[in-house]
Amino acid sequence: MMKQDHLLDPAVPGAGAATGPITCTVPEQRLPEQRQAEPEPAPAPAEERRSTRLRVDARRNLESVLRAAREVFGELGYDAPMEEVARRAGVGVGTVYRRFPSKEVLVQRIAAEEVAWLTARAREALYGSAGPWEALAGYLANAVGTGAGRLLPPEAFGYAEELARVPEQRPSSEEFGHAFGAGPGPVEPAPLPGGGATGPHADPRLLLQLLAALVARAASAGELRPGVTVSEIVLVLTAAVPPSIGRTVGPEGTDPGERLLQILLDGLRAA
User: Fold this and answer.
1) CA 20 to 30 Å from 246, out of 30, 72, 164, 232?
2) Any idea where the HTH tetR-type domain is (predicted)?
3) C-alpha torsion angle, residues 141, 143, 146, 148 (rounded to 10)
4) 70-95 b/e with 16+ CB inside 10 Å = b?
């Protein structure tokens, strides 16, 4: 019996192995993927959501105001009232003045953007592969078709008259590129009041120098009517038919704006 008791003693390693299953405790370290799952992000605070919505609304209102201002000033000129801009934008006049504290600031914004666009297109025409007349006529067609020429600032006409009076100020394309370092490269704008962009390329004097170079090149090639100056070219730029007149097709199947432009171009080209 002593021998059997010794075999059943639990203190002895291996004793009692045949009397039942051996159990052991395993630490709870299973399913690591469940423990590593990131919690769902908490919803944004109401104040943050409201701020984001206000920023989106402000951007939408700004775009509406700028679009309406281009239409109104293009049709009625820069003397048009701010109330008409607000009405077409679908906002209150107070919203317009919150972004543009005065009408002069809004006019400056619109004029600078249009001048910068016209300047970039003039550089492309001057340094492109088209011939002298094709470059000038193509530029005018592009500018008149978009209505951008009607938004030139009033001082542009004074600069054009100065260039027309003083022949030395009318450079050729080669002289212009040498003097101003101009070329077909990209335009780098700078900030504008109200959030736009302007800079040296929004200066109407630079635009008129480019136009004068286009005129000089076409004249040198004998493709421009003698005596045409940059002043006449600026007048052609402003010849777009305002949207208020309508864009209905004429009796000969042509758009009135395109027909007017063709008449003007025929008058500019050398016979």
Assistant:
1) 232
2) 59-118
3) -160
4) bbbbbbeebebebebbbebbebeeeb
H/E stretch holding 190 reads strand 190-191
Measured distance CA(74)–CA(205) in Å, rounded? 21
Surface-to-core class of residue 55, CB atoms within 10 Å of its CB (0-12 exposed, 13-18 middle, 19+ buried): exposed
Is pTM, for the whole model, over 0.85? no
Complete domains list, the chain, with CATH: 51-99 (1.10.10.60), 108-268 (no CATH)
Write the pLDDT tens digit of every residue in 27-48.
555 545 555 555 555 555 666 5
Tokens standing for 257? Answer: 């704006």
**C-alpha to C-alpha distance for 53 and 55, rounded to whole angstroms:** 5
The tokens 């690591």 sit on which residue? 32
